[in-house]
Amino acid sequence: MNEATARVLGALRSASGPCSGEDLSTALGVSRAQIWKHVEQLRKRGYEIDGEPGGGYRLESIPDRLYPEAIAAHLETRWLAQTIEHLEETDSTNRVANERAAGGGDHGYTVVAEAQTAGRGRLGRSFFSPPHRNLYSSSILRPQLDTSAAPTLIPSAAIAVADTLTEELGSRDGVEIKWPNDLLLGGRKTCGILMEMHAEDARVGHLVLGIGVNLNSDPSQFPEEFREQATSLSAFAGRPIDRISFAARLYSRLEAVLDEHARGGFARLRPRYEDYFQMSGRRVGVVQMDGSQWGGVAAGVDDEGMLLVDREDGVRARVVAGDVTLAKDIR
Amino acid sequence: MNEATARVLGALRSASGPCSGEDLSTALGVSRAQIWKHVEQLRKRGYEIDGEPGGGYRLESIPDRLYPEAIAAHLETRWLAQTIEHLEETDSTNRVANERAAGGGDHGYTVVAEAQTAGRGRLGRSFFSPPHRNLYSSSILRPQLDTSAAPTLIPSAAIAVADTLTEELGSRDGVEIKWPNDLLLGGRKTCGILMEMHAEDARVGHLVLGIGVNLNSDPSQFPEEFREQATSLSAFAGRPIDRISFAARLYSRLEAVLDEHARGGFARLRPRYEDYFQMSGRRVGVVQMDGSQWGGVAAGVDDEGMLLVDREDGVRARVVAGDVTLAKDIR
User: Fold this and answer.
1) I need a labelling partner for B3 at 20 to 30 A (CA). Which of B36, B250, B305, B324 fits?
2) Which CATH architecture has domain B283-327?
3) From CA A224, how far away is CA A131, in angstroms rounded?
């Protein structure tokens, strides 16, 4: 959207009643014919605006799209998502953000899509990404960070998502983090986080932090293999979710968590992670990359974000996210 | 080079005397006119071949180019550099290898250039890369590795370079590794290593390991800012270096070191690193990313490849490569 159209939208948004074309024309310093053209532009974009060229205009509704100007109206961040690239459909927001990063994209630059045709999850899995229902967002980060500290940005981001879900629900009940980086509502996956890193030697060059949250999708429409294990915030809450304000609040919480990580690392965030940690005291099976398996009781995570598991032989093992997949809980 | 031309080259290489066109034609199952065409192809590529269509052919010399077929004739690796892409000139072999990796390039795929117009070093520095003198090589690696273990591949690669330099010189005298990843001959930089990593979550997706070795360049031709601190193997040894066999031997040693790293990590390679470690017992100044400085005595490296420095207050500090640059030695 161009700047002049955005200014017309801003004026309509902040007006308490209808705005006359003449008032808009005077306030914005453009002709009434131009105002009409901007109104038409906004209507094409999905904004419902009552009124005719001769009379007054009133903004009746905004479209259910994650438009940058819509998110910006709610956004309270300093650097995250200050620039948003909105795509109606793409293969993967992470791929696009990586491309933008390679081209010099700024710290905080964010790509949002209404649909992904090849949404990606951890370990090469896919992330089901139907149109106009959810949030698929990938942000470029350029932290001053050693590669060894970067992986803990993932559980840190999970805290921000969990806090936003809690705020939306008005309660922490049923909001859990499944190590390392899945968000569960009532035991079902609602969000996935996928971080990609580009580094030179031991220094992070850029990161792409991808977050997919099931907001309004209907679990009965999920592919059969996900149906039992996945849900959406809307299905859990029993009401539709305002995607735009959810996105804006998520970015605020995410920025705060990332700033905290920059100040003190994951060590300062760990207690907040453990508040949501779904596995504490439960039996878990660990499948190593080499295929060997063993069991134990999850004890928590450490300051490096590694899972601590008390093995049957009494040894406390540290489990690296990349090295294992967790077998389903054995109770 | 196409496969038939390579077969003609192979026959000429392995022959003890001149090969008649007729013998070649029979042995390779192609017409004598075809043999002539392949010989002409080889001559265009810089191979000196005596002989005329009617008579016998003899390979007199091979060109001083890092051609894949030339390196392959000396190569004893199982997986590294089995495919070599040779470029007469490029901006940066690391950049090309990254591009190939993004396109699915295999573990071990290697890009070699005769010249780089924008050769890169650590921390955004440039690497002076004049044509036809040196080795500029970047390999794609796809190890099963956690990101936290990846940085130690850099000092591991430095061991392989140091061993190859030692083999070429017939002596370890003057061969040193300057932490973290510069190779020195007689105290002057001869090689730089730059590793780039792409990771998803805590798992390495691919790495690009770039190695630039000054082999035959003339230090008097170096840019003034490098002249005092840099040299080449040829200048140090006082004789020209066969770039082709050096490259092949380096790949063999590099593969062996990477295989050893895969089996036991840097812990198994550390003693070999410390044999070349130039700083032991010397005073070093450490400049942190935040600009603060402090001094101490270098004690060695640990199993994570971090520099151990005994500070004046008696504390042994671990220095991360990415966090600091070393001030020049204070003796």
Assistant:
1) B250
2) Roll (2.30)
3) 18
